[in-house]
């Protein structure tokens, strides 16, 4: 779109309700790998944010902020002929979903947020530290980047086996594309103003919504999930002991909530 290559993964019948899954940092559409197979009777599209995953090269020299990702998302939906979709967002992807829904509410049929950024909840302290040392970060050799990524991913999981799989899936993207320089570009682009600009509009969204939250998340605290649920007038499903990467630790719960939301959308 306008010279920017956009990538996504797709499953399910092309004529069914479209559900768009949006990942965060430091992940890619692979975040949803165990969720997609359990979302029934829906066209599932796992959007890859520009500058992330296999699309790291597309982010070089471009705006890859959360607000800009919402523009990419909406332009992509228009380009592939999807007029309305259910948005499912995790981490940064939840911020993208909120901004897209506020900017173009007619494109959002429903909204599910799981351990998502919002309001002033981000960047988290460890990411702020990376922002402050981005010049050094971009020059890190691969051997030094690996433990940094491992620490970030492991702290966000309550299932150790899932954490190990997650690390293997997501580190490959950095190893293949620019390494630490890619992560440095990603953290430099993070600006809390992107979600603060739309948070006052969330309560005016009139779409079916669900909020699913790991209660032990050290990155996006539960009270932000409670605030999102209140603003969206949405039920809040708490995952006791769940940490940040809910789509990888608890894919069945996320899929069930998505299926429930799709049914609610189709009943309207």
TrEMBL record:
Pfam family, one: Abhydrolase_1
Transmembrane stretches, start-end: none
GO molecular function, one term: catalytic activity
InterPro entries: AB_hydrolase_1, AB_hydrolase_fold, AB_hydrolase_sf
Residue ranges of domain AB hydrolase-1 in the record: 18-251
The organism's place on the tree of life at top rank: Bacteria
Protein name, per record: Pimeloyl-ACP methyl ester carboxylesterase
């Amino acid at each position: 779109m306008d010279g920017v290559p956009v990538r996504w993964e797709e499953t399910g019948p092309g004529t069914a309700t479209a559900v768009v899954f949006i990942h965060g940092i430091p992940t890619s559409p692979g975040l949803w790998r165990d969720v997609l197979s359990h979302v029934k009777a829906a066209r599932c599209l796992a959007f890859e944010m520009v500058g992330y995953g296999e699309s790291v090269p597309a982010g070089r020299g471009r705006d890859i902020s959360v607000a800009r990702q919402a523009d990419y998302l909406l332009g992509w939906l228009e380009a592939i002929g999807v007029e309305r979709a259910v948005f499912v967002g995790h981490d940064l992807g939840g911020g993208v979903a909120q901004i897209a829904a506020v900017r173009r509410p007619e494109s959002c049929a429903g909204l599910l947020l799981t351990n998502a950024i919002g309001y002033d909840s981000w960047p988290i302290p460890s990411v702020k530290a990376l922002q402050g040392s981005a010049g050094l970060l971009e020059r890190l050799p691969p051997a030094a980047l690996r433990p940094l990524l491992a620490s970030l991913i492991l702290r966000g999981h309550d299932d150790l086996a899932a954490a190990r799989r997650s690390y293997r899936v997501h580190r490959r993207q950095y190893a293949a594309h620019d390494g630490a320089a890619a992560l440095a570009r990603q953290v430099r682009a993070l600006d809390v103003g992107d979600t603060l600009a739309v948070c006052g509009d969330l309560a005016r969204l009139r779409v079916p919504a669900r909020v699913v939250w790991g209660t032990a998340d050290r990155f996006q605290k539960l009270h932000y999930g409670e605030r999102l649920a209140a603003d969206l007038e949405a039920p809040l499903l708490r995952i006791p002991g769940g940490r940040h990467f809910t789509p990888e630790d608890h894919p069945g719960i996320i899929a069930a909530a998505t299926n429930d939301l799709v049914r609610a959308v189709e009943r309207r």
